């Protein structure tokens, strides 16, 4: 379960039978691409047995404030509720919520501040994609 998902791993064949629906916004597209990289070792399924629907929300919280009320540290909270659906019947087989908390420094320079926030989002999306992949693989591995 915790190893790399390769062609010979348990659940790999089942993961390749999951169609990953589009996720809106730019960060949703990044998450979808990460999931595609993890689910499809040999290409996308021609006739998927399952469908994965995911949404994505994010919020930022200021953690450390100076005397002038400017923040020096912040936390990014990214939430991704998802559902695994049987493509034939439309029945929800599994639903859960993946969440990631990433802390980062708030910088004064504009480019540095943007790069730091972008890096925080990338780390959060990577954590979420790993969690979704592991939990969906475990769920599909339980199916008779």
Question: Would you mind describing this structure in some detail?
Answer:
The chain is of the alpha+beta class and 144 residues long. It has helices at residues 12-15, 26-39, 110-142, and strands at 18-20, 50-54, 57-65, 71-86, 92-105. The longest helix is centred in the C-terminal third of the chain and has 33 residues, at 110-142. The chain starts with 11 loop residues before the first helix and ends with a helix. The model has no long low-confidence stretch (mean pLDDT 87).
What would you say about this model in short?
The protein has 144 residues and is α+β, with helices and mostly antiparallel strands.
